[in-house]
Fold each of these.
Amino acid sequence: MRRLVSGNEACAEAALRAGIRFFGGYPITPSTEIAELMAEELPRVGGVFIQMEDEIASIMAIIGASAAGVPSMTATSGPGFSLMQEGIGYAAMTEVAVVVVNVMRGGPATGLPTKGSQADFQQARWGTHGDHPVVALTPRGVQECFTLTLRAVEISQRLRVPVILLMDEFIGHMREIVSFPEKVEVYHRQKPRVAPSEYIHYAPDNNYNAPYASFGEGYAIHFSGLNHRSDGFPINDAPTIRWNNERLRAKIEDNLAYLEDNYVDDDPDADTLIVAFGSAARSAYEAKLLTDKPIAYIRALTVWPFPDATVRRLAKGRKRVVVPEMNEGQLAREVERCIGTDTELVSVTRNDGSMLTPKEVLEALR
Amino acid sequence: MTPAKASSRKTSFSPMIHSYLRMDERFPHVWCPGCGIGIVFGALIHAVHELKIPKKKLLLASGIGCTSRMPGYLDADTFHVLHGRALAAATGVKLARPDMEVVVVGGDGDMLAIGGNHFIHTARRNIGMTCIVLNNYNYAMTGGQQSPTTPRDMFATTAPYGAIDDPVDACLLASGAGAAFVARTTTYNFVQLKRLIKTALSRKGFRLLEVVAQCPTIFGRLNRIPTPKDLVTWIKAHTVTLEAAKKMDAKELEDKVVTGVFVDREVEEYSERYARLVKKVRNAH
Amino acid sequence: MRTEVRLSGRGGQGLILAGIVLAEACGVYEEKEVVQTQSYGPEARGGASRSEVVISDQQIRYPRAYDPDILVALSQPAFDRFAPQVKKKGLIFADSFYVHTDRKDVILMPFSETAREELGREVVTNVLMLGVLSAATGIVKLDSLKKAIKHRVRRAFVELNLQALDVGFKLGQEEWRKRSS
């Protein structure tokens, strides 16, 4: 059925259909509509909505609810995303499944509440202290706000990780014609099949689709943000710390095939490659269509982990790589890491709250 | 039924206490000899045992600090959260699983400084949980810095010339925010401590119990009261009951800690209110 | 064929809702490709507000107006800012009560005055304006707008808005008859 829907509405609708039954949040433009919709809809499906006292409390509440077995989510924007970083790190360390939606706006500080940006791209990766991999997805339009919210919930539940959905104000408030599927597949976390005395919460092979216990199921589980052993108890010895870090790393890196998600439009005759994500990719692709030259194109839907190998392969032998984005050049840094020194990097940036135009990208393609 | 009597002099734990602990290589615990946290932990276990709260239904959550290490030793679902954030995380657990008995423990710094905002709002909402603030007047784990409860003119490593800040009163704060049950006691009075934990566990909504406890190793040493015995005696000397306090003037109460029950009222717990809302919304459609 | 419509004025004039109704009418009920966007300040009332609808028979990538084909300005600041950005052969509709201009190519229409006088409520200026656009430009059918209003406007106000739409449509037809005669 054709419907006119905004990005924020699509995100909330998908979250409900993906089985999100707990939402803790704090009002912030331009993500507030997601919270408002969840406040309205969650009681109808027997779920819980709570407006917390700030974003720190919001992320901690959804971690608590998820640890107690309920698929949970929050939505925020820049300033709130900054406050949530310690909680995101805690979820990563304790391996609790949560979805954090960041409808990006201009910054730094209070910045541009009603205008969009892509300036939290690197923050999504490096915003927490310590060092651990993260998963972040970026939709380019309203339909993808729906599909990627579904996917964010699924990844979080399968891998027991926080998943960040990087939307932006342009997409959150944009309305497009969409058609959502009548049925969606929902992955439900599996409960442990062993007796509590046999159960190990952070078992060595506890990776993809592994069963795990929640509070209140009789497994006497212990969560701690400290580096811990396989039973969750804090420990200070180097081998265990290495084991713990390796576990967090492997969980993402061993599942690259599952996590990677790109739209690729390659052209063997092209000497130029465009790398883009999210709403900037709309203008980038428009520019590709407007030029008469052959242009190769990749748009990452999963931006973290970054598709290093795919970008490297596509950039190989090309004269230049054009990277359009709405920040000061954060994606360009990532692309530069992947391409050889023989390939020229052209960074096209716009960071004033307005959407990058196809014309600006086109100039770089000349 | 007095399990405490069953303890022999040969073992440090009575079998009853033992049965509530994760007795593996987690021990010895992190707390210093003479610390007050063990007394509170023991009283909590006695209270849980006497009220026959099933372990499966019990969640013990905490933030960061000496007191916050308590959950690691309890054989139940335990949640060692970030500094100051235990109440927010416990809110999520309680709303997701209203059938669980949620207890949150933390020190004065954890609950009243970095976690102060969560403290106010969890009390305001009357989320169904028992919150035990163990007040030892300083940040002990990090070596004795000034906390929001450090009394005026007392010493801390970050108040080397004596504290000039006025301390916060956790009980007044919780009362003002609307908590259903608010009480204070000290580690000196174990019987009252256990009784108040039991009362708190039996009430609905947000229940605050502040326990003034000794930290001889850090706070005591910095303030020249370095032995557990002297520090507990010092706490006792500064304690008056609510009944006695009513007959004293402000000057006499200046350096006193008032113990007793300040608030005890019936409230509808938040998840009950939420369940009612769900029912209303669903019936309307 | 790409048509870019910009509806502009002050916050509180219902321009975002008008954009949504227009986009839904074209996109859902006429099965065209549409994207609706908006730009606004922090104020709920006053301030500058604009809503854009891009209508196309092809997939729309860049969602904003490059240079609008149709501009509606319901306030002087909006008119002053956006009128110079309209395409050479584009149409500019401005509210005759709130906008003053010497430009002869601008179509000054009594949107707000008609809403006040004929419907007794200035608040329906936005929908009345959509009626005018439908009659004067043909970018959207009156029937599609009616369906979108029924879906998007709160039930208690649907009737009033449908009236406003009809009044606007007639106003647009008359104006066009005058211009073509």
Note: Chain A has 13 helices and 16 strands.
Amino acid sequence: MSGVRLLVGTRKGAFILTSDERRKTWDISSPHFAGWELYHLKGSPADPNRLYASQSNGWFGQIVQRSDDGGASWRTVGNEFTYHGDPGTHQWYDGTQHPWEFARVWHLEPSLTDPDTVYAGVADAALFQSSDGGESWREMAGLRDASGPKWQPGAGGLCLHTIILDPTNPNRMFVAISAAGAFRSDDGGQTWKPINRGLRSDYELPDPDANIGHCVHSIAMHPARPNTLFMQKHWDVMRSDDAGESWREISGNLPSDFGFPIAVHAHEPETIYVVPIESDYKHYPPEGKLRVYRSRGGEEWEPLTEGLPQRDCYVNVLRDAMSVDALESGGVYFGTTGGQVYASADGGDTWNTVVRDLPSVLSVEAQTLP
Amino acid sequence: MIRVLLPAHLRLLIGVEGEIELAIDGPATQRAAIDALETTYPALRGTIRAAATQQRRPLVRFFACGRDLSHEDPDASLPEAVATGAEPLRIVGAMAGG
């Protein structure tokens, strides 16, 4: 029987939520790695029982965990993330130069074809690769070579939080960094170019042609349309149909175009989801109503509210905390900073609360199980 | 044989409860104690001291016999009571975060 496994990272541990294809009832695991921050967990598309988890805290640093049995058991793998050569400096908040310092792994992206290959996006922003199941890590330093000294941290630090692999072209990868922008490689990560033409960040970057410095929050791609990218920027929801060469705004009638996550329906490459947030200093939904907005391609957005709190709701949904499954009816999931995880088994038309009192949710990844 | 008491996060990480007893070859120093810890429990590498620099992590502290040993030379001898196993070396997560 097919089903769904949700990998939920929180401020105080990881939780694994499982259901069958009906997605009506859920089994909630006890905490994994209790007391640690789990920024991200993700399963290998090539082997759904191979999971990777980023475990960290401010006292004891970074741990990477790996499971070979779908999360039933875990073991630590390599946690040495050493920048290539002399890492040099990047811009600090005040414009001075600041040494590059590893802080944590924000995002883990397993290869589409090899369970032992996995990419890690870290702060201070860099991309690492492991080809031995996470035992050792090597920086793909060509990314920082592109323009690293010009990068400046966003409010959450200088973090590489988005990694997208093109299923039709193994040499093409996309990454996004706060607050540097989006970048693309067409040679397997050896060299990179900024892909930020069309992004506008009027208050932060007065130069309308600035190619570096945009605060990209997340990017989503449907595997059937690898040249089409959807972006939730700090402000603005954007779209590219040429693999990031140019972007155009599709915020349309959203009540706010500030937000963090963006997701694409598993079977409808034009159907996208965002969660509008009031503003960059009020990190909660407009009017205290938690609404997911759905659009077919952008510009025209419809609020999805059935089953979601429509009063007195002041939670946030972080950039890695929304995901979709690939079951026939297309499930959508997200977690909040208030500890709720919501699920829709009908593409967002209706929502159910999977669990309501977890620690603050940092990430949600859905695995569709055979 | 020396005794080491780890903070809860690290005990959970390596799946132990209570104190750890470690055999140390040669003089009992901070460095020797952490070397032995990391050899016995490789998952601890990088959590107490940075792997690359061997420097104590900023929010980790070492205490024993009522003294803060955090700023001692890592190659200095641990107190006699720690070296003989009469007292544990306490590795502590600094109080921080409000």
Note: The domain at 2-93 of chain B is CATH 3.10.20.30 (Ubiquitin-like (UB roll)).
